[in-house]
Write a structure and sequence with these properties.
Layout lengths: L1 H22 L10 E5 L4 E5 L4 E5 L4 E9 L2 E6 L4 E7 L4 E4 L6 E4 L10
Antiparallel strand pairs: 1-2, 1-8, 2-3, 3-4, 4-5, 5-6, 6-7, 7-8
Length: 116
Amino acid sequence: MKKKLSLLLGMILTLSLCLFTACGGGDDGTNLLGAYDNDDAGYSIVFYDDDTCEISSLDTWVGGTYTVDDDRLEIETDDGYTERGTYNSDEDIFTLEGVSGVFYYVEEAYYTPYTE
């Protein structure tokens, strides 16, 4: 009976670890990966697991790199601008200083330049 109980507890622990691991995205335990849209500002930002990102609107885009430290987000664009904001991992949303509205997770970025 003790052996079965130990096996059952081990399986529950393993399943719990798998579920917690699947919820996170980045190496630092954040899940700030994928595409985010901000309808008020008309921007999309796509975050990749190699700490790079792409910021776009309907007529332009720029690449960059990003870091997340607790709830602080910093984006440095390839053309030299630095954007700072706050990331809420519970709701998977973020804001950037000086940019109106909230960025929320989407399956695919909407605000991207039209290409044929």
